[in-house]
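Why this split exists: single-chain examples teach little about how molecules sit against one another. For that reason, every record in the complexes split bundles all components of an assembly together and asks for one structure covering all of them. Below is a record exactly as it appears in the raw files.
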Amino acid sequence: DTEVTQTPKHLVMGMTNKKSLKCEQHMGHRAMYWYKQKAKKPPELMFVYSYEKLSINESVPSRFSPECPNSSLLNLHLHALQPEDSALYLCASSQSDGTNYGYTFGSGTRLTVV
Amino acid sequence: QQPVQSPQAVILREGEDAVINCSSSKALYSVHWYRQKHGEAPVFLMILLKGGEQKGHDKISASFNEKKQQSSLYLTASQLSYSGTYFCGTDPPQGGSEKLVFGKGTKLTVNP
């Protein structure tokens, strides 16, 4: 299995809702990432998990809360989002920490906050 | 520190060649290249590590000039399937930081 699977593919949520994005990989990768991508922009790093521990938080607002239950799963919990948070949220994984290995991206969750 | 890509966009006819550049104001440890088609996830093309190596993948190759702090992606005899936005990703010189920062991208359009 050489894929990163993200669910749901699309999500519409109100500003008072709580929702979660899920990401799963079975490649034995030990580093997992959340990126945010706005239209016609590059992916922007949000969080990095290395060996199931949060190693980088790019000063992301607390309304985004990551969780890594095990080495194959990565969640992003969303609460009280703003319309400007609407974007494509990409999960990625790589063989190990550091940037010596290419990233495998999931197809993303397209989030719309209304 | 976000790397700078050039050109921002390029339009080719099938079979033509293209070069996409990625440069940084700081020393680089590694350079990644990805292609993203509209509505799809970025796809990893290749990685170049400090040492000035050159890599190839089919008719796509890349070089990494450590002294000039830049990398170039070469697309030879372009195919329609090469269309998409190409991103380079770089990380700080100490390496191992897990922090890959992407350039703004180069939109490549290959026409028949």
